[in-house]
Specification:
This protein has 15 helices and 4 strands. By secondary structure, the protein is mainly alpha-helical.
């Protein structure tokens, strides 16, 4: 077996190990961790899609825009998709996700999208929906369900993206102009490729194929530099590394969700069972800063009810506030993740750990079979 074959086998093994760890951790996490993690994933999907489309903004600016307090960018790109329509399309799509925590938070946060209306909202919404439908057809048409490992389907998916009129990267455009009798050529930035839609659908395919028990958006999976690569082994390594990077990032997010859930349960343990303060803690910990009006619609609470939840979190030192355009945004107060790591108990029982190790052993066996086939070739 040559060095490149060894390299891509190693890269694919690392990707499968990350997927196995993510799958095992998701199986045994408490529901509170799932809810925080789902909100983190939803926010990351929205932010990732907006960045892919060419919007430039900070995290704080995103939350202020989502709350309807400002535009997303001071200098919006003429070539980027309308931001509100894009987020509405994603929220609608994920509200039908097969993983219940993700579907639930997307459905509940959709009315909380208070961002300014796009100029051509009807046309923009239709375009966002068309992109999502085309991505679903692309993934369904090029990824086979009954495959032990995802890499062959991933190769076909990259090929389909590269040949797609909708999703292939566009080239820079130019137009001639005449000024004072002289002719010039003006180059325009290439329109962005809406790969975010394909990455959302790929998570559903991984679930159907049995690789992951939960369908999660794999934002950042498609690497543009590999779509037209001539070196098949080198491209295979990069595709596997991208899959590993996304899965490992989500595993780290799941760990952060577990830390937050443990911290919240400890600080709010004395609350009566009817208190909604833990729900607000999970919402802010997962998605991020929100206005009171957004919290009301998301949690189905009254204005007085939200004030009571906020007051409880304030008493525990769990909430921070900021003021933008005369409106208050509520966010979780910063916590020391290192200190939480030292105190948090394991969420896994002995049986859960045994099941997790068994699933990883199964993955090792599958990968060993793949490497043996390469040796024989």
């Amino acid at each position: 077996m040559d060095d490149k074959s060894t390299d891509f086998a190693s890269a694919e093994a690392h990707a499968m190990l990350a997927l196995g760890r993510l799958d095992g951790a998701l199986e045994h996490c408490p529901l509170a961790v799932h809810r925080i993690f789902a909100a983190q994933i939803l926010r990351g999907t929205l932010v990732g899609a907006l960045l892919q489309e060419g919007h430039l903004f900070t995290e704080a600016r995103f939350h202020a825009w989502f709350a309807g307090l400002t535009t997303l960018s001071d200098t919006p790109s003429r070539h980027a998709s309308a931001p509100r329509a894009l987020c509405e399309g994603i929220l609608t799509e994920l509200a039908h996700a097969s993983w219940a925590p993700l579907a639930d938070i997307a459905l509940r946060l959709k009315p909380a999208l208070l961002a300014p209306q796009d100029l051509q909202s009807q046309e923009d919404n239709a375009l966002a929906n068309a992109v999502i439908e085309d991505a679903r057809a692309l993934v369904d048409g090029h990824c086979t369900k009954h495959e032990t490992l995802p890499f062959t389907s991933l190769t076909r998916l990259y090929g389909a993206v590269a040949s797609s009129l909708r999703f292939a990267p566009a080239e820079r455009q130019s137009s001639p102009i005449a000024v004072a009798g002289r002719r010039f050529t003006v180059e325009h930035p290439a329109p962005s490729s809406p790969l975010w839609a394909v990455e959302i659908q790929y998570g559903e395919w991984l679930r159907r194929a049995g690789t992951l028990r939960c369908a999660l958006p794999f934002t950042g999976l498609i690497r543009l530099d590999v779509l037209a690569a001539d070196d098949s082994d080198g491209a295979r390594i990069i595709r596997a590394e991208a899959l590993h990077t996304v899965a490992n990032r989500m595993l780290l997010q799941l760990g952060e969700a577990a830390r937050l859930a443990h911290h919240g349960s400890e600080r709010l343990a004395g609350q009566r069972t009817t208190s909604r303060a833990p729900a607000l803690f999970e919402l802010l910990g997962g998605f991020g800063p929100l206005r009171s009006a957004q919290i009301e619609s998301t949690l189905g609470a009254t204005r007085i009810g939200v004030r009571g939840m906020v007051a409880i979190l304030e008493d525990q030192g769990l909430i921070a506030h900021s003021t933008i355009a005369g409106a208050h945004l509520h966010a979780l107060a910063a916590t020391d993740s290192t200190a939480l790591d030292e105190d948090i108990p394991s969420a896994f029982t002995a049986k859960a750990l045994d099941d997790f190790e068994a699933s990883l052993a199964h993955i090792d066996g599958l990968l060993a079979g793949t490497v043996n086939k390469l040796d024989e070739g």
